[in-house]
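Protocol check, entry for the methods section draft. Step 1: assemble the input record (protein sequence plus ligand SMILES). Step 2: submit for complex structure prediction. Step 3: store the structure tokens unaltered in the notebook. Ligand used here: pyridoxal-5'-phosphate. Step 1 record:
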Amino acid sequence: MSSVPAVTSPRLDVEAVRRDFPILSRVTDSGRPLVYLDSGATAQKPNCVIDKLAEVFREYNSNVHRGVHALGDRVTGAMEGSREGIRRMLNAPEVEEVIFTGGCTLAINTVAHGWGRKFLQAGDEIVLTEMEHHANLVPWQMVAREKGAKIRFIPQTSDGRLDLDQLDSVLNSRTRLVAVTGMSNVLGTINPVGTIAARVKQYGAVVLVDAAQSVPHGSVDVQGLGIDFLAFSGHKLYGPTGIGVLWGRRALLEAMDPFLGGGNMISRVWGDRFECGAIPAKFEAGTPPIAEAIGLGTAVEYIESLGWDAIAAWEHQLTSHAHARLGQIEGLRIMGPGIEHRGSIVTFTVDGLQATDLATVLDTRGIAVRAGHHCTMPLHDRLGITASTRASLAFYNTPGEIDLLCEGIEHARKLLMRKRRS
Ligand SMILES: Cc1ncc(COP(=O)(O)O)c(C=O)c1O
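Step 3, stored output:
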């Protein structure tokens, strides 16, 4: 998570991998093959995940942790097996520290409301970065407003990296929490989370990593990073929508309050009060997204079978290719740092072209990219723009698809310039 792998020859058989993703062989309404460059919004799903969801509903659909019947046992076993797979992927010490949530947003809100409301006081400081997705900004604004806490931001360099030389200017004895993205969903910047955590720990503050964009691209070791919480969404990790994960250190999870109340999260309820259950149930009120949690476990197994190193190396090659090719287009400005500090997201503006117009023209060629503020309005404000176009790459993409993107941009430029002149 904290370093970009060196370019090595690809060990990933991308054509074989592509056959695992049925949607990638679709021909779009444009009559052209789908070129899916929007995996940062949501990743495509391999057959094994799609089949797993069908298997759960066809063969052992039941509620978890409640059944005294065979189906209940089977589905509970499958969901708990998935939890263990995620623990292993994160190198988390204990399986009970892995909480299933509805997604990354809900995971961060669980900490903001469950930890922040209980432990923050007036005058305390929360430190964020200016490249945070709204999911790792608005929950902290909500809790800061309620508790009278202050939000501060780690300064950024002009090329879109965190300026660690200035870290000590924002950290102090009032810092209670630092919440930082592992990889920017716009700039593509890979943040040195482990280095930041080590510095933050000198001030005794808690570190949360929004790993929505970083977890799909490389192995993670929450113990090695020295962090306290990590949040991500299943759907960006080739798993189903509606499922996400919050990992937290046991002591913190046990100390904080539950965010949602209801069934499953209690050990005892009286007419006027309740006692919380043990983790992870304490944070899993109600019926969880069962098939989705199981499907996420299958996605993790699939990715691990490809190998994180092979994925990271291939994606790095793709990103280098995209960076170089896009950089040759007249009037195109790539946002964020050089290739050595970024992951597989390349966001850009093109002089004279609106991001949404560009994305619409690309769509007529079967190319799916994202246009807009990407839920990072403060970052766009800081850069003095309202929108940008984002190509987010995954291991199933090819250099040829990037070339098609570049041709599409050239085509859009000519088309829209001609329209403007006429
Ligand atoms: C960096 C980052 N954090 C958080 C989120 C929120 O994820 P979700 O909408 O799946 O909860 C996103 C989604 O794009 C993201 O890119």
